[in-house]
Amino acid sequence: MLFLLFAGSVAFAFGLLFLFFPKALKDLNDKVKSCMSKFVFSIDEQVYKLRIGVGISLILSSLLAFFVAYFLFKKYS
Length: 77
What we know:
Distance between the termini: 12 Å
Radius of gyration: 15 Å
Number of strands: 0
Helix content: over 70%
Order of helices and strands: HHHH
Strand content: under 5%
Structural class: mainly alpha
Oligomer: single chain
Number of helices: 4
């Protein structure tokens, strides 16, 4: 259940970044890419074109993870 809460929190945070703070997300991506240049392949342009859809999808998936965690907590506690 903690995994669902953690995954939901991360997805919600990145969903908000995609929707409301795309510049901050791009700066974060540039910092990570400079550290891991040989391991990361670039799909940035495609994701940033679809940032609203990606952001909404991440927020919806985080809400689903929170709901499942709540349901499991209520059922098994």
